[in-house]
Amino acid sequence: MTAIAGSLVAASFSAVMILPFTAGADDQGPGSGKGGKAVDEAPAGVRLTTLLPSRISVDNGSRKTAITATVKNEGTKDSGKIQLLVVGFDGLTVKSVQGCSQIAENNLPAGSNSGFSCPIGNLAAGKSKSYAVDATYDLNRTGKICLPVQSGDGKKTYWQQGPVPFGTTNPSPNAPATPLLLGTDNKPVAPGGDRKELPKTGVGRDVLPLGAAGAALIAAGAAGLRWTSRRPVRRPHG
């Protein structure tokens, strides 16, 4: 199995699309920081983290689901300008994030299928801000989500949660909806009811370490990014 490694580089783009949020998120469990880690050092007194629901529910017909993404400042000082990115991988596709701008396809991270950038003017000490994420999930595949928290200019990444999987080890193809748990590798059901084993995508195996390299975003309200990745060569055993 090949591990994914990469670095985040901020870049500007001209087209910004704001999409509405349509799905509810009433069935979600408590928030969890599973799969998160600090990357670049935050300003003194600032401690930024993120939370994802411990569980989500996917409609087996429409494949729609809803996720609440939360960013918190657990420090003693205000954060200053920051931004939250919401990025989907594999079977999980982010369709919209309330109040956020869609990332152009050619600026998406390598291996991802969708992403949104959420500018935050300032997050006061002890405060949090939540975003309603409208997504779809192909239950025949694994699916992951990633929440990096950057400086407002995109030069530093203070925190990154993921890419962390949502999934189930007990598929429910005949039920109205399938519950998925955060940090769980999805075990899809192949045609005929047999489980189809897919490559593992658990926490710690596909984490994208984001560096401080980048260029300042330009134009008010514009945001963007370009991710690059390299795949290490696995040496044969024996």
Short description:
This protein is mainly β. Helices cover 0% and strands 42% of the residues. It contains no helices and 15 strands.
Could you explain how this protein is built, in words?
It is a single chain. The protein is mostly beta strands and 238 residues long. Helix content is 0%, strand content 42%. It has strands at residues 5-10, 31-32, 36-38, 48-53, 55-59, 64-73, 82-90, 92-97, 101-102, 112-120, 128-137, 143-151, 157-167, 177-182, 225-230. Strands 3, 5, 7, 9, 10, 12, 13 and 14 form an eight-stranded antiparallel β-sheet that branches. A five-stranded antiparallel β-sheet has the order 2-4-6-11-8, with no helix packed on it. Strands 1-15 form a two-stranded antiparallel sheet. A hairpin with a 5-residue loop joins strand 12 and strand 13. It is elongated and about 50 Å long. The model is unreliable at 1-26 and 192-236 (pLDDT under 50).
Category by helix and strand content: mainly beta
Largest sheet: 8 strands, antiparallel
Instruction: Determine Rg (CA atoms, Å).
Output: 18 Å
Task: Estimate what percentage of residues fall within beta strands.
Answer: 35-45%
Could you state the oligomeric state of the chains shown?
single chain
Spans where pLDDT lies below 50 across 5 or more residues:
1-26, 192-236
CA-CA gap between termini: 17 Å
- Count the E strands: 15
- Percentage of residues in helical conformation: under 10%
